[in-house]
Amino acid sequence: MNKLIYGFLFLLILHSCGTDKEEKINNQQKVKSTKTFKPKHITSPYNGSEFTIGDTITVITEGGDNKIDSIIVDIDGFESAKYLVSDNKFVILTNQLPVGKHYINVQSFKNGERKQDNIAVFFKSDIKPKQIKAIVIKKYPHNTKSYTQGLTFDEGNLYEGTGQWGESALKKIDLETGKALEIYSLPSEIFGEGIVVYKDEIIQLTWQAQKAFVFDKKTFELKKTFTYDTQGWGISNYGNNLIMSDGSNILYVLEPNTFTVIKQIEVYDNVRAVTNLNELEYIDGKIYANVYLTNLIVVINPETGKVDGKIDLSQITPQKYREEHDLVLNGIAYNTQNNKLYITGKRWDVLFEIKLNNQ
Predict the structure, then answer these.
(1) pLDDT, position 84
(2) Domain end: 77, 95, 124, which one?
(3) Is 328 exposed, middle or buried (0-12, 13-18, 19+ CB in 10 A)?
(4) Alpha-helical segments (H) within the chain
(5) In the listed set 124, 150, 176, which residue is the last one of a domain according to the structure?
(6) Over the chain, what is the mean pLDDT?
(7) 311 and 134 in contact (C-beta within 8 Å)?
(8) Which of 66, 76, 223, 254 is least surrounded by Cβ atoms within 10 Å, i.e. has the fewest?
(9) Which residue range is the domain that position 83 belongs to?
(10) CA torsion, points 40, 41, 43, 46, in degrees to nearest 10?
């Protein structure tokens, strides 16, 4: 009986070994049959290269297996912007691109298989910003305790959002006296930021809490809060949507009811990315943005991300604030009822009505 059992086990082991060997051979054949090919790779330009909108870019590829069936070169998936010079050289036209980050892709095809190599490149504006002068028309008092983060008009009423720990608030301001008519103080652990009026509500951002407060415009009653994924700096109306800054060179177009990001706008002048974008105001189709820690306002075309103009307010900034690191210009409000523009700064004692030389 034992001999029969041992014999059965021996045959079982032999069968198992044979099966393992067969599977190993099959797997080797599969690997051999699906052996990948070497695709073309980009040798010029290099990853991270900077260009100006309108530049002609020559893309050079090298390597790859012989007899690759076909190659496609594109920028952001659009082939119409390029033409073939030779098998390894392509030219991309960029005059229709927006500023910012783009990807050049090279796709290699062989026997139905696709391989891709890509690099990131950056585009500056092809427009030199117009230098816009500002003239002071009138001065109004401003509360020096207000660390101004947001400033806006709605139906002739002036609203201000202020920051700093334990000081952040939403205020309705009397323009003539600078005094607060209504105040809602935010929790002491919250650092308040920009504000915007949307329909019957006022939305106030916060800096690092990633939380926005929504108030009833008439009563200043807190109605709700919601969260977002970045820092909150400035916010403004933008057509039927909202637009928000986070201190980078990126502006976020938001759906106002859900705060969902619809698209991002990268902002560049003809030299570099314009960072530290702060308080925002939408005026006649353009975005006016304070550049934090400067006395500069940039005028941005939101369709292209290009800086069309720059307003240097250094000469308007009161002398006593010019040497202060943080008491800088921050606050842009446009009154659509009389087409007047107002600016102020953090803890300034004055609010200016100004006129621009292009108005």
Answers:
(1) 57
(2) 124
(3) buried
(4) 2-33, 319-322
(5) 124
(6) 86
(7) yes
(8) 66
(9) 41-124
(10) 150
